[in-house]
Amino acid sequence: MKLDAIVIVAIAVTTASCSFRGSLPGRPSQGSEVARPEMVMEFSSLYRSNCAGCHGSEGSGGAAVSLADPIYLAIADNDVIRKAASNGVPGTAMPAFARQSGGMLTNEQIEALVVGIRSRWAKPDILRGTRPPPYSDPEPGDPQRGAEVYGVYCDSCHGAEGRGGDQAGSIVDDSYLALVSDQGLRTTVIVGRPELGAPDWRHNAPGKVMTDEDITDVVSWLVSQRKQVPGQPYPTPPITMGAAP
Predict the structure, then answer these.
(1) Of 71, 62, 137, 68, nearest to 94 (Cα)?
(2) Is 27 a member of any domain?
(3) Torsions phi, psi of 198, nearest 5?
(4) Model confidence pLDDT, tens digit, residues 166-193
(5) Quick check: is 244 in a domain?
(6) Rounded CA gap, 192 and 131, in Å?
């Protein structure tokens, strides 16, 4: 074969190869590349991957408080949500998600979650005309008075001494109190758990609204029920020397 013919054949093969390169088996199509984790900024993807397991699909609640509850969003500002998402809540199952705290999300991704939660589920006028209790109270309450408050507002559902009733379970359960923070207890008393049928601070007793003092005191009473060593309710029996193992 002459040199000219060889060159023509080579050019033809190369051209054919180029024309079919985009459809070769196993070759990714244009635009199908997977984004690097830190580049994902779309709220639904971030929420589904990092939040839905505990806070429920579409913020509906689950093991943790509903983030789609407008009452919760009315008392918890963006800084509260940002800090919880970034740093977690020590002593609870809420982990830290920000990279500087050992998580996997960038600050920009945390902010995308905060903005998305607020823009999708908040209702700015939900408490118009109402003076809601403050999200937190730095002063400790009176647990003795809190026991009385519990009897007025809570025992109809949660039973005597908080050990459970016909309408709701125990709120002094060792495992529950070991996994919830003091602020988590306060948040639940204020906003309730609407996905579980638990009312907010205005509707626990007919015709009575809990005051800030009521809320602080009943939370203090709940905190006083928490065991110092959760999971070890029974004392360890003394070891008698010479006894059979």
Answers:
(1) 62
(2) no
(3) -85, 125
(4) 899 999 999 999 999 999 999 999 999 9
(5) no
(6) 16
Q: In terms of residue numbers, what domain contains 168?
A: 143-224
CB atoms within 10 A of CB 75: 19
Mean pLDDT of 24-37: 74
Residue 182, H or E segment? helix 182-191
Same domain? For 65 and 111 the reply is yes
What is the pLDDT, as a whole number, of residue 35?
78
How many domains does one find in the chain? 2
Residues 6+ apart with CB under 8 A from 115: 43, 78
Cα–Cα distance list, 188 to 105, 113, 184 (Å): 27, 22, 6
Domain-ending residue, one of 121, 154, 188: 121
Whether residue 87 contacts residue 101, with contact meaning beta carbons closer than 8 Å, is answered with: yes
39 burial (CB, 10 Å; 0-12 / 13-18 / 19+) is exposed
- Both 148 and 99 in a single domain? no
DSSP secondary structure, 78-99, as one string: HHHHHHHHHH--TTSS----BG
Q: What is the DSSP letter of 133?
A: P
Tokens of 156: 């109809």
Residue 219 confidence class, pLDDT cut points 50, 70, 90: very high
- Closest alpha carbon to 200 in 71, 66, 74: 71
Using alpha carbons, select from 67, 74, 63 the residue that is nearest to residue 117: 67
Whether residues 172 and 116 fall in one domain: no
| 25 in a structural domain | no
The 3-state DSSP class for residue 113 equals helix
> Is 133 exposed, middle or buried (CB count within 10 Å of its CB: 0-12, 13-18, 19+)?
buried
Instruction: Give the CATH number, domain containing residue 177.
Output: 1.10.760.10
Query: What is the per-residue pLDDT across 4-13, written as a single tens digit (0 to 9) for each?
Result: 555 454 455 4
